[in-house]
Design brief:
CATH architecture of the largest domain: 2-Layer Sandwich
Helix content: 25-40%
CATH class of the largest domain: Alpha Beta
Largest sheet: 7 strands, mixed
Order of helices and strands: HEHEHEEHEHEHEHEHHEHEE
Shape: globular
Number of helices: 10
């Protein structure tokens, strides 16, 4: 994280130097760094003309005197191949997981209205998109702030009705207080994939408590069993963290036992070159049962 901050600050300083030399007229900074450290940045690098947080696009456009037409809301350039796109349904997170800085960088959970998301999906379909992957810092919290209820199932139905949208896939569902109606909608709608990305992070109750995950191993196992009971062919994908501070050999053994009992595929991911027994390692796992007559919805 320190390296990434340094890279971002160096990039800002490079642009400030270009401005000093007359090669740039203005320098604006937006994103996670200015969301979290705006006051510090304004003090330390005052040569920047303005800093904007992650949800301040209207302010940025006003600063640029941009005539942003209302009918272009949701317009975007795709960074993916043209047949699929990610669609963020909310920004920020109200959880307090001890390993995560997202609430500090992105702020509290803010849901986008259903009508706005349907409009965005329709625009993507017009561009040739066939599959949309719904993403958020916490997908299953959707709607609680603006509709006072977990309305992800309602959003799924509305998006499922968009003509030309063939696949809808769900990413980043939080296991605590998971709304089971999501699984009911999957069963109802042919264009909603039998697929769910749900980060569990660990299987030891000691670690789950230290991580402030608001769920126990037993509750997670019951949830997975309930989901599979309703939809046996579902593909569940998750992530697990090993090497969290305070983790013991017993905690690792519990995690390994959980993987052996519940996981069909595990692979290792690490960005930090450290001694193997100490490094922070993310195990990405795939809970993948046999897909009965479901090959098109992988």
């Amino acid at each position: 994280m320190i390296k990434q901050k340094e890279e971002s600050i160096n990039t800002i300083l490079d642009q400030v130097e270009l401005k000093r030399r007359g090669l740039l007229d203005k320098v604006y900074v937006t994103g996670c760094l200015s969301e979290r450290y705006k006051n510090n940045l304004e003090t330390e690098i005052p040569e920047v003309d303005a800093y904007f947080g992650t949800m301040e696009l209207p302010m940025l456009l006003k600063q640029l005197n941009a005539d942003y037409k209302n009918e272009l809301v949701g317009e975007r350039l795709l960074a993916t191949p043209s047949h699929y796109a990610y669609m963020k349904i909310s920004e920020g997170c109200n959880r307090t997981c001890s390993f995560c800085a997202i609430p500090l960088m992105r702020g509290k959970h803010v849901s986008k209205p259903i009508e706005q998301l349907v409009q965005e999906a329709e625009g993507l379909v017009k561009k040739g998109v066939k599959e949309i992957m719904l993403i958020a810092q916490e997908l299953t919290y959707y709607g609680l702030d603006i509709y006072k209820d977990r309305t992800l199932p309602d959003l799924m139905r509305r998006l499922s009705d968009v003509k030309g949208l063939e696949w809808i896939r769900l990413h980043y569902a939080y296991p605590s207080k998971f709304p089971m109606e999501i699984i009911d909608v999957m069963k109802e709608r042919d264009n909603i994939c039998n697929y769910l990305d749900m980060p569990l992070q660990h299987a030891s109750n000691n670690m789950l408590k230290a991580m402030r995950r608001q769920i126990t191993r037993e509750e997670m196992e019951d949830l997975v069993a309930s989901i599979r009971g309703k939809l046996p062919e579902i593909c569940l994908r998750t992530t697990l963290i090993a090497g969290f501070p305070g983790e013991t050999v017993d905690d690792v053994d519990e995690l390994k036992g959980f993987c052996n009992a519940s996981v069909s595929t595990v692979w290792e991911f690490s960005r930090i070159p450290m001694k193997k027994e100490l490094r922070h390692m993310v195990l990405k796992t795939m809970f993948q049962p046999t897909l009965k007559n479901n090959e098109r919805r992988k």
